[in-house]
Amino acid sequence: MQYLSLAINALSGEVPKELGQLTDLIALAFSSNNFSGPLPSELGSLSKLQQLYIDSSGVSGEIPLTFANLQSLETLWASDIELTGRIPEFIGNWSNLNTLRLYGNSFDGPIPSTFSSLTSMTELRLGELSNAASSLSFIQNMKSLNVLVLRNCNISDSIPSNIGEYTELAQLDLSFNNLHGQIPESLFNMSSLSILFLGDNNLSGTLPRQKSTSLLTVDLSYNNLDGDLPSWVNENNLQLNLVGNNYFEIKSLENSGLPSGLNCLQRNFPCNRGNGVHYNFGIKCGGPEIKFSNGTLYDGDEADLGASTYYVSKTQRWAVSNVGFFTGNNNPQYNSELALFQSARLSASSLRYYGLGLVNGNYSVALEFSESAFLDSATWKKNGRRVFHIYIQGKLVKKDFDIRREAGGIFPRYASRNFEVRVSENYLEIHLFWAGKGTCCIPTQGTYGPSISAISVTPGFKPPLSNINSTNKKKKIYLIVGTTVGVGVLLSFLSVLVVFYIVHRRKKSQTKNNEELFGMDVGPFTFSHAELRTATNDFNSTNKLGEGGFGLVYKGTLDDGRVVAIKQLSLTSHQGKNEFMTEIATISAVQHRNLVKLYGCCFEGNKRLLVYEYLENNSLDRALFGPGDHGMKLNWSTRFSICLGVARGLAYLHEESRIRIVHRDVKASNILLDSNLNPKISDFGLAKFYDDQKTHISTRVAGTFGYLAPEYAMSGHLTEKADVFAFGVVALEIVCVRPRFDLNLDEEKRYLLEWAWKLHEQKCELELVDSKLSEFDEEEVRRVIRVALLCTQTSPSVRPSMSRVVAMLSGDVEVNKEIPKPGYFNIDWEFNDVSTITSKVSDADDNYLFAST
């Protein structure tokens, strides 16, 4: 064997030392896995090895001394694996080495002087070296370099005066070091160089007078540069970042052609210093302006920031600076479904946001993050990790921040972080910094680096009167001018105002309803009734998909071609405005692959409609129990996948979404199936938000007979365990393909739960399986049945959480072998009106109250 790749899997444990016996290997890769422990010293026996890829593999510790034997090595990627100690001197003896990546580890410096022997090197990337200063002398013989990245390596040196001799160099990154002295003129005249990052150093003097036309991305931010600007700063397509330097000549800035506002972003941020003029701000990072009903305004931040650019808002209230070049893809875009997370500002290296002209004092800083690049954990892409540092006012407040880990759960992921900070010089700096950790290439190259969706900064003090008085003075001036100039105009408009008042009174009731809808923090897109009437061909009966307690459901096609399902609230529906609002608020606040997607709503007068994604295969209820051709023949693999998908959706609602939610009406008819028979939970009209600090919610009982948990049915004691109970019932229905009760069956089989328990006690669980299933996985069936029996225990505390249900169904956690029989089988249950209930249960879309005496 000469080529072996184990990359991008979920392999764990230690890397097998037996790999060292494959002595003919030329290439070995086990990147992007979950290994642990050190690198096996036995790998040093692979003397023919030319390529070794071990980045993001999970290993740690020092590089074994036996690796000195890898004399044939040409390429080594060993980033993001917590390697420790010093970079070995023996690497300098790998004379064939041309590519070395060692960033995102925990090495101590300095860079070995033996690296000067690596004359064949074309790509060298090092980062995060500490405790000892390095110089640049080792690169003196590396004249074949094409890419040189020595970022955050504690280098204390000046840029070599002969840098112009590196005629192959296309990308140079020496940022976040301690470089001093002036910038050599020859560096800016290299015909090969296109990307230059020298930010966050101590370089001084003026900018070089001339620049090669090939050099179009230049970062010189956070240095000590000053003076006037050369003429080349006006060059087309040039990206030049000069934020945080000493003072450039104002006249040069005005005539430079650079993005406006740089005068506010020079050292110490001089605009509006002193008393300050602002005391809050909000930014929708990478997206348009959003205003919420609570008054929070997120300014739009839609500037197209390249690899070395900045932007100052028109009000000079805030600004943003970006530096970094993605490997393989310099403009990745990732979007989310929620209003606040519909876009994000993504950076390859260093992203800074500034609050400018702030009144000094204490502030609360809320940072909102979303992760959409690394997809659902059910795929190989789950190994993707985004890791970066968070600095505020220059202080490291969170090291190795990982959005996925902070948010937990399944795609998409959202996380918030709040910090209390002190502003003492009228500006605030929020810095997100990629130190080289996290995966670089999953699912594609260019998905690493910091990402943020929104920022909100609010004062921890009462805004000063000087600001308020200043605003009032402006209002008085406007009032005087307006009164003097506009008396005649005002008189001419009086008759128009009378007519407007009459019309306004007629619309007042409708406006109040609209305010309730659009006042929600997270709201969907709104449709006019005319649009939806057109989409459904005037709600033609041929487009009717179904009918339930809510009203009618129609299939429609929007103007943009999307096929949708439109739920129309009937005027006589028992689901009133509160439930309608709840459904919108709930499903807008959560997004998950196993939750139905809400496209928008219509709320005109007494017309209330919800617009959902159209799911081709209708409901699980219909697939399981539908008469004739309406039913579907689902094989066991599909049924198991549906069961697992529903469990994941509920786990997200209970434990992983930013807002914890109890659905309250989990049942087969509220689980819809898409074209691939993936399940999506729907109908959130009865959902309840709950606080993690509360043990339960006391509420009126609402739900569907047969799915209600005992403690909830009897006393309104509601926790997420009510959904767990209902899930257990649904899981049994999926296995048996029979409803929760059927009065046409023999007495011992009428109630599904009771029958399931009898068969379990007799160790005959497989008799529950649908007789139409000719093939099925017996172990999976037993697992589903036992999980269902655990979920339907009497005591909520005995029922597992939905995350544990997912783990048990997946086989990651063993299911309890001893399952106690629920106590409710020893109670005689009666119903207020059995005849009424049994006549209604055939309408699977209705909601019922369950009572006991």
Task: Give the percentage of residues in beta strands.
Answer: 15-25%
Query: Biggest sheet: strands side by side, in what order?
Result: 1-3-5-6-7-8-9-10-12-14-16
CATH homologous superfamily caption of the largest domain: Transferase(Phosphotransferase) domain 1
Number of helices: 13
Mean pLDDT: 80
Low-confidence stretches: 329-339, 468-524, 691-696, 827-853
Radius of gyration: 32 Å
CATH class of the largest domain: Mainly Alpha
Shape: globular
Structural domain count? 5
Structural class: alpha/beta
Q: What does the main sheet amount to?
A: 11 strands, parallel
CATH topology of the largest domain: Transferase(Phosphotransferase), domain 1
CATH architecture of the largest domain: Orthogonal Bundle
Overview of this protein structure:
The protein has 853 residues and is an alpha/beta fold. It has five domains: 157 residues, Alpha-Beta Horseshoe (Leucine-rich repeat, LRR (right-handed beta-alpha superhelix)); 81 residues; 185 residues, Galactose-binding lectin (Jelly Rolls); 89 residues, Phosphorylase Kinase, domain 1, CATH 3.30.200.20; 221 residues, Transferase(Phosphotransferase) domain 1 (Transferase(Phosphotransferase), domain 1), CATH 1.10.510.10. The protein has 13 helices and 42 strands. The strands form ten sheets. The chain has an eleven-stranded parallel beta sheet, with no helix packed on it. A hairpin with a 5-residue loop joins strand 38 and strand 39. Helix 7 runs antiparallel to helix 9 and helix 7 packs antiparallel against helix 12. The longest helix has 54 residues. The C terminus is likely disordered.
